[in-house]
Design a protein that fits this description.
Layout: H1 5-8, E1 30-36, H2 41-47, H3 54-61, E2 63-69, H4 77-84, H5 90-93, H6 127-134, E3 140-144, H7 147-151, E4 160-165, E5 168-170, H8 181-188, H9 191-195, E6 199-200, E7 227-228, H10 233-239, H11 245-261, E8 270-276, H12 278-286, H13 291-311, E9 320-325, E10 341-342, H14 345-359, E11 366-368, E12 371-373, H15 376-381, H16 386-397, E13 403-407, H17 409-414, H18 418-426, E14 433-439, E15 444-445, H19 459-462, E16 463-469, E17 476-478, E18 482-483, H20 487-495
Parallel strand pairs: 1-8, 1-9, 2-17, 2-18, 3-4, 3-8, 10-15
Antiparallel strand pairs: 2-16, 4-5, 6-7, 9-16, 11-12, 12-14, 13-14
Length: 516
Amino acid sequence: MYRSLRILGLVLGLPSTAMACQARTLPVQLVVHFSVDQMRPDYLSRWQAEFTGGLARLLRGGVVYLAAEQAHAVTLTAPGHASMMSGRWPYSTGIITNEFGVPDAASPLIGTTGSGASPHRFQGTTLYDWMRAKDSTVRALSVSRKDRGAILPVGRASQSVFWYSNGMFTTSRWYATRLPDWLVAWNAQDPIETIRGSVWTPLAGTAYPEVDNRPFEAGGRNNTFPHQIPVEATDAVGAVTDFPVMDSLTLDVAWHGVRAMKLGQQGHPDFLAVSLSTTDAIGHRYGPGSLEMHDQIRRLDLLLGQFLDSLATVVPLDRVVISLTADHGATDYPEAGTGGRLPLSAEVRELRRWVMSRWSLNAQISEEGGLVLADTAALADRGVSIDSLSRALAATFRGRPGVRDVLTPATLRTRRDAEAVLWRRQIMPGAGWLVAVASEPGWVYGSSTTSTSHGSSNILDRRVPVIVMAPGVAPRRVSRTIGVVDLAPTVARLIGVRPTEPLDGRVLPEVVSPRR
């Protein structure tokens, strides 16, 4: 079993905090935004009766939407995180894929090696910017295992933004030249030394209905319980991201940051974002239908409960607005009988070779989530007709098994159907692209059989939960479909701040009455 969170720094054993709505609400001191990478809403509906911690509180005390959507086409982590607290679709935020998300060689990490990262591509503002426009003393803390999960919820703001890299939590030189003392002290405790060699087994006393021997999970290697973090420290540093304990480390850093920064204790609302990425890692490796996923969500519920209990010791929860959503959903392993695999890489490689041999040009041709990007300006300078090239490339994909639709820049300009709407929300004006390939339901992009994935415009990849719990807001379940872009304007209205730019999202009337 993993070491207890007491060892990792979280306060345990605190009494549960009542979250019942009060007739008179007090001023909000803290806005807390949880995102769970690859959280499917059916996890909450299927396993709700088993929850006793933070998920149970949110489901019991919040306004719950289990038919929310990341209503754009490329359902990857970076576009999803950029939309949550901005209230805008990717075409507006400028974050259209992971590759064209936060990577930034000009912003190296502090104290460790790894890919530099920053919000240099992010366009526009977020909830935190609107809060600061009202009160310049408002502060923000954002923590995640992934750089994009930490960076994008606060947009371009230069605040306290930290993520995991090579066994420690750090940031890049976009934000600072040194780590704060409290994080230096946390890293000095060497959490990997504490947990290396630990074994993940199902929670005691559970009898999960899922089988633990689906042969296709993780490519058929080490895909049944127990799962052990490597004993060797250098191996454990990378492997820990696939284990539930990674979420506990992330929450522990957030808890230490809240206390050190005294968030929510300065007479004005501060902002805390925590992105939990273990569900995504486990989802990719074992799949949404796995026993491992069931156990992970149960553990996530307990960890969130412990974190909220700890938070309540410094900020009363009747003065906290809490939201939870996800950057995308997921499709289970095609090998489970759901569909198939749709590799696009061979055609992309061939196009690169052809462009290089014909024009000696590196046109930066790449593909993510079915979107084939290119330096179309450079191609046009060489006399290439982008429309003709796009039509030819579309013809190579159209009709292949697993391909539901193919759009080009020319067809996207004229089409008004639901698929075209999703891609129009995705692709920002001026972006260089050639084709957008939509997959059939149940199909995943790529050819690797060692994992399953997400990223398509299909409903399983788009569908996520949205929960908002706030003082004075009556809990309820809402069955209608909403957008994740509705979350930021709703929280803004709850705390009395105004967006400083036009948004794609709308205030949710089930959370904020039109009279308010």
